[in-house]
């Protein structure tokens, strides 16, 4: 049976599952983009690596009691997810100053933030995903007060788990971006992906083990993602 394409993104294509209308198949693509798609390149093998990394992390999050959209990995490039309506927010959590945070506040990359800092960005390509605060979220009717509180609490809970897992494999979780969605029952669950495309990971020597390798032309992106996957596979 042919399945129906419902969304084509920068890193993934999304289809409605031919078996169940409440499920989607996410197909991870061999594409790397930056600057909202202004720079776009094919990177052979990246889709399979990110699918495996994200599947592994989401499986561990599910096991730790986090509600997520992840059901199972279907193949090298495909995973089965619960269908959700994505909340148009990029929830960014920072443990260490880097990237746009360092630029905005003139703070050197690598400075540890005593209390991890949570930021919201409005997911809107036409507006270049602007930085927004809780009051903007309310004004734009993206989430209500209770939902904002839940998103923040859940993101910090996820950070505590991820930080610990990456620490166990010699990587520091610098920052990351999450997306949440509402399932058929209106429950907020973690959606999208977790991969080196949307987080920063530094090894003990300070090497970038994430998409900054592509953004800053630091070498082979797939070599680095392969190392992250191999290390994650050693986690118990
Ligand atoms: N991030 C993302 N998608 C975006 C913007 C940021 O996944 O559209 C991730 C990024 O990989 C990093 C974190 O969110 O792990 C914080 O990114 P930052 O705001 O520093 O922006 P950048 O410097 O990557 O443009």
UniProtKB/TrEMBL annotation:
Coiled-coil stretches: none
InterPro entries: SAICAR_synt/ADE2_N (IPR028923), SAICAR_synt_PurC (IPR033934), SAICAR_synth (IPR001636), SAICAR_synthetase (IPR050089), SAICAR_synthetase_CS (IPR018236)
Reaction it catalyzes: 5-amino-1-(5-phospho-D-ribosyl)imidazole-4-carboxylate + L-aspartate + ATP = (2S)-2-[5-amino-1-(5-phospho-beta-D-ribosyl)imidazole-4-carboxamido]succinate + ADP + phosphate + 2 H(+)
Membrane-spanning segments: none
Record GO terms (molecular function): ATP binding; phosphoribosylaminoimidazolesuccinocarboxamide synthase activity
Ranges where the SAICAR synthetase/ADE2 N-terminal domain occurs: 6-231
Keyword tags: ATP-binding, Ligase, Nucleotide-binding, Purine biosynthesis
EC number assigned by the record: 6.3.2.6
The keyword Lipoprotein appears for this protein: no
Keyword Repeat: no
Gene Ontology process terms (BP): 'de novo' IMP biosynthetic process; cobalamin biosynthetic process
Biological pathway: Purine metabolism; IMP biosynthesis via de novo pathway; 5-amino-1-(5-phospho-D-ribosyl)imidazole-4-carboxamide from 5-amino-1-(5-phospho-D-ribosyl)imidazole-4-carboxylate: step 1/2
Pfam families for this protein: SAICAR_synt
Top EC category: ligase
NCBIfam families: purC (TIGR00081)
Family under the similarity heading: Belongs to the SAICAR synthetase family.
Protein name as catalogued: Phosphoribosylaminoimidazole-succinocarboxamide synthase
Source organism per UniProt: Streptococcus chenjunshii
Gene: purC
């Amino acid at each position: 049976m042919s399945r129906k394409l419902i969304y084509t993104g920068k890193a993934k294509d999304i289809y409605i599952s031919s078996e169940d209308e409440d499920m989607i198949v996410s197909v991870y693509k061999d594409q790397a983009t930056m600057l909202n798609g202004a720079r776009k390149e094919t990177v052979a093998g990246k889709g399979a690596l990110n699918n495996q990394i994200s599947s592994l992390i989401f499986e561990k999050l599910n096991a730790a009691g986090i509600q997520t959209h992840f059901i199972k990995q279907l193949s090298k490039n495909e995973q089965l997810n619960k269908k959700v309506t994505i909340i148009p927010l990029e929830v960014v959590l920072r443990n260490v100053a880097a990237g746009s945070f360092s630029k905005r506040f003139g703070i050197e990359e690598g400075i540890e933030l005593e209390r991890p800092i949570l930021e919201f960005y409005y997911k809107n390509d036409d507006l270049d995903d602007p930085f927004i605060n809780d009051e903007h979220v309310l004004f734009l009717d993206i989430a209500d007060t209770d939902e904002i509180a839940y998103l923040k609490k859940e993101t910090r809970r996820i950070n505590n788990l991820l930080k610990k897992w990456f620490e166990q494999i010699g990587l520091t979780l610098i920052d990351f971006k999450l997306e949440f969605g509402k399932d058929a029952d209106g429950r907020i669950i973690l959606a999208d992906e977790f991969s080196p495309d949307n987080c920063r990971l530094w090894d003990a020597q300070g090497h970038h083990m994430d998409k900054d390798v592509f953004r800053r032309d630091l070498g082979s992106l797939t070599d680095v993602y392969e190392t992250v996957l191999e290390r994650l596979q050693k986690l118990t």
